[in-house]
Amino acid sequence: MADVLVPPATGDADDAARTQLVGRLDSTAGLERITANSSGVIWRVQPSAGAGAVPATVVSSWARLVTATIAGAAGASGKAAASAPTDLAIASDGRSVHTRIPAGTAGRLIVLAERADSGWHATLDGRPLRSVSGGWRQTFEVGADGGRLVIELRSPNRVPWLVAQGVVGLLTVLLALPVRRRKAGRR
Questions:
Q1: Residue 137 host element (H or E)
Q2: What is the pLDDT of residues 106-132, one digit of tens each?
Q3: Secondary structure of residue 41 in the 3-state scheme
Q4: What is the pLDDT of residues 37-46, one digit of tens each?
Q5: DSSP state letter for 4
Q6: CA 14, 17, 23, 29 torsion: positive or negative?
C-alpha cells in the first residue's frame, strides 16, 4: 500500500498551487484522505474494487516513460518539458530498473522520482542513455527505440569510504581496550 504526502503550506506564492493540488488529490479516484496535520496532508492509495488493481490515474512506480520534447540547441534552455500526459509506469524493484520497454515515438524520456545525481546511469540494449535536465528529477532521453532498459545508481566513492570507516572502527576498538599500568619498581 502506498501513501501520498503534500507538505504543509509555507506562506509564499505557491500556496494557491498547493490548495489546487490538494483539491485534485481529494477528488482522485483511488486516493483516500487519511489526515491533515502539521506534517501536511496524507492520502492512502486504495486498490480498485476489480482484481485488486491500482487505478490507472495513479502511477505506482518511481520510474516513468514520458512523451516529451527536448529543447534544441537553437537558444533553448536545454530543459525537458513534458508535452502530453502519456506517462507509463516502468516496472522497478525499488531503486533500480531492469525491464523491457516498447518502441514508441521520438522524444521520449525516462523520469525518475529521484534527485538528479551524476551517479545515475541508464542503458538501453547496452547503449548508454543521455541524461537531460528535468528540473530536480533524474531524467534520461530514450528516443523512439525499445529494448532492455537498465537504470542503476553507482556510487564511485563507496569503497574508499568503507575502508576509512573500517580503519576508524578498528582504531576506536584498540583505543578502548584497557591497558595495565606498570608497577613502579626498580630502575
A1: strand 137-141
A2: 888 988 878 888 888 999 999 999 999
A3: strand
A4: 888 888 888 7
A5: E
A6: negative
